[in-house]
Amino acid sequence: MTEKLTAATTSLAGCFGCHMSLLDIDERLLALAEVASFDRSPLTDIKHCGDKVDLGLVEGGLCNAENVHTLREFRKHCRILVAVGACAINGGVPALRNHIALEECLDESYLNGIGIENPQIPNDIELPLLLNKVHPIHEVVKVDYFLPGCPPSADTIWKFLSDLAAGREPSLPRELIHYD
Amino acid sequence: MTKPFLQIDGKPIPYTAGQTIMEAATAAGIYIPHLCHNPEFEPHGSCKLCTVKVNGRNCSACTFPAADGQDVLNDTAELNELRRTVTQLLFVEGNHLCPSCEKSGNCQLQAAAYFLGMVDAHFPFFYPARELDGSHPDILLDRDRCIFCELCVRASRDVDGKNVFAIGGRGIDSRLIVNSPSGKLADTPIAATDKAARVCPVGAILVKRRGFEVPIGERLYDRHTLAEESLEREEPIVESRHD
Ligand code: SF4
Ligand code: SF4
Ligand code: FES
Fold first, then answer.
1. In CATH, what number is assigned to the domain containing residue B189?
2. CB contact under 8 A, A148 and B120
3. CB–CB of A155/A88 below 8 Å?
4. pLDDT single digits (tens) B169-225
C-alpha cells in the first residue's frame, strides 16, 4: 500500500462503547496509524468529512432527524461504510423504546416519571426532532460491512481493519462474531 | 439383509424405516441446522431452517421421510445462504436485542445465526408490538422473542398434559396465546418444573431468577457451536427413539 487510507468515524444513537472498543485495540493503534490517517471523528474532533474518505465507521442507530442527516452526509463522503455494533445494525438498546409510544416515553422521562422536578418536555430549536422509532442504519443508506457485537470486541475491529488495510476481503471467524 | 441407504452430500447414510431425513442424519452424526425440530417431540416443520435438497427438490429434513436412494444435499453454499436468509427473517419479525436478553449465549436462534455467519439482518425491522406477561411468580413470557416453533405447545400438550400454550392468529399477526380465562400465565397450571417452561429454544419463556447466572464467554454457545451441541445432545435421543 503506497497511499495511506483515510478513515472517519461517527457516533449516532449509541453509547460510545464501539469507539471505546476501537481504542481498545491498544498498541495496535500505532500499526493502524502507519496505514491510515483519521479524518472526521469524535477522536479528532473534526466535524465534517474531507473530500475523500476510504473507510467510514458508524456507531449507533437513528433516533432523531440529526442522526439521519449526519448519516446521509457521512455516506456521501465514504467509499466503504461499516455499521459497527448492535445499535447501527439493529437499533440496539435504544430500540427498546420502539415498543412504547413516543409520547409515553417523553411523559415518563420528563413529566410523570419518578423523581422528576420541574416537569417539562425539552423544546428548543437546537434539539433535533425525535423519530417515532429507532432504526438501524441499513434502512436509510447502503452499508458495505457489518461488525456485530455490543460492542464488537477490539479483536473483531482489528481483524476487520487489518484485513482491509492489507487489501484482503475482510472476514470474521465465528469466534469474533458476537451479538452481545 | 443389507440396510437401506440414502446419500447426504455424497456420503451413504443408513436409516431405519420410519426415520425422517433429520433423524437419519443425526444418528449418523451429520448436523442439519434446525430450530423448530427437537428429537424429543413430534416434528412440526415450521421454521424451514432444515431445508435440504432431496433429488433436486427443497424439503424440510425434519418432516421428510428417509427413503432408499435419496440424494440429499445439506451442507452447500446455496442451502446455507437460504438458511441464513430464513434466520435473518426470524430476527426482523420479532424483537431480538441480544445485549438485553437473558438467553443470550444459550439461545439457539442466536447460535444458528453465528453458525450460518449472519452479521446483519439485511431486511427492514418490523419491531412488532408484542405483549409481555410477567404475571406468573416463576415464569416470564416475553413474546418479543417467540419464533413460533411450537415447542412449548408440544411440550405442554404431549409431556405435561396441560395444554397451556397455542399459536393464535395468522401470518404476521401470529402470536403465542395462553390458555386461561384471563390469557395470563399466572392463571394456568404451568409450573417452573414443567417441560414447557424449559423447552423454549429462545428467550421467550424463561424461568425467573436464573438470568445471567453464567457470565458472557462461558455460556453454552460460547463454548460449542450449535452443530456440536445439537449432535451431542440429540444423537442419543434419536437412537433411543428408534431402538
Ligand atoms: S432470544 Fe436469542 S436471538 Fe433473540 S434476543 Fe434473545 S439471545 Fe438474541
Ligand atoms: S415461546 Fe418459545 S417454545 Fe414457544 S413457540 Fe415461541 S419460541 Fe417456540
Ligand atoms: S427444523 Fe425443520 S422446519 Fe424447523
1. 3.30.70.20
2. yes
3. no
4. 998 889 999 999 999 999 999 999 999 999 999 999 999 999 889 998 899 999 999
- Asked if A57 contacts A83 with a C-beta cutoff of 8 angstroms, the reply is no
pLDDT exceeds 90 at position A108: yes
ipTM of this complex: 0.92
Residues B142 and B57 in one domain: no
- For residue B107, give the nearest of B232, B200, B9, B217 by alpha carbon: B200
| Domain limits for position A137 | 5-96+132-177
> B232 is in which domain, residue-wise?
1-118+226-242
Q: Does residue B105 belong to the interface with chain A, where contact is any CB pair within 8 Å? A: yes
Q: Is the dihedral of CA A17, A18, A24, A26 positive or negative?
A: negative
Pocket test for ligand 1, best of B120, B145, B152, B214 (most atoms within 8 A of CB): B145
A111-133 pLDDT tens trace: 999 999 999 999 999 999 999 99
Number of structural domains, chain B? 2
Which residues, including other chains, have CB under 8 Å from residue A19's CB and lie 6 or more apart? Answer: A9, A11, A42, A43, A59
**Which of B125, B145, B212 is best to mutate for the A interface (most A CBs within 10 A)?**
B125
Residues B23 and B63: beta-carbon distance below 8 Å: no
CA distance B197 to B192: 6
**Domain shared by B67 and B187, yes or no:** no
Name the amino acid, one letter, at B46.
Answer: S
Chain A: closest CA distance from residue B124 (Å): 6
**B64 and B162, same domain (yes or no):** no
What pTM value is reported for the model? 0.95
Q: In angstroms, what CA-CA distances link B63 with A84, B21, B194? A: 39, 8, 26
Asked if residue A121 belongs to a domain, the reply is: no
Q: Are residues B138 and B45 in the same domain?
A: no
Q: Report if residue B221 sits inside a domain.
A: no
Q: Residue B119, CB half-sphere, CA atoms under 13 Å: how many?
A: 22
> Is there a contact between A90 and B122 if contact means CB atoms under 8 Å apart?
no
Any domain includes A168: yes
CA dihedral B149, B155, B158, B163 (to 10 degrees): -90
Residue A110 lies in a domain: no
Indicate whether A126 belongs to any domain: no
Interface test with B, best of A18, A82, A90, A157 (most B CBs within 10 A): A90
Residue B97 lies in a domain: yes
